[in-house]
Amino acid sequence: MDRVHKTRNVSAILRTCDAVGVLEAHAVWPEPEIALHRLTSGSAINWVPVHTHPTIADAVTRLRARGLRIVAAHACAAALDFRAIDYTRPTAILLGAELRGVSDAGLSLADEHIEIPLHGMVSALNVAVAAAVILIEAERQRSAAGMYARTRLDDGRYRRVLFEWAYPRVAAHCRSHHLPYPALDGNGVIVSGND
Predict the structure, then answer these.
(1) Using an 8 Å Cβ cutoff, are 139 and 20 in contact?
(2) Would 134 be classed as within a structural domain?
């Protein structure tokens, strides 16, 4: 999210991220943390962390280092229909605020531009709605390719995410006290020291 300044929009985007299996979001934000809305996010703020960046260049650099291509949602002559992109490839979708859109710096850093065809009088969708439309298309493509049939996370990250989702209070306690997470058995149940 490139300067998406309304926290309710950020929260709604996180809700869609969770719904389609996106495990994290990134935002250009002037402060280290964003005050998000639990109800708007459908509690997704518990499951989808937001990593903040001081600039779009910093965000893009970090995402590219992880092997992601950057696709900016921006209507222009070079933009492709959002359905023409192969979302089975590692992809970061770059969205901007409704009035300003993606920044010039973000547009210049993007590998490709996409647009959602609109046939009415409005020139753009709400950013959270645009995110949902694009992410649902990505989910459709990934589902058709069988990408949801098995985990693609490394074992350590899979176990950490499973623990945090299954035991959010215990995970929060462990993090606040700098403790390792307890081990889980094959069924996702905490293994007690008395077994």
Answers:
(1) yes
(2) yes
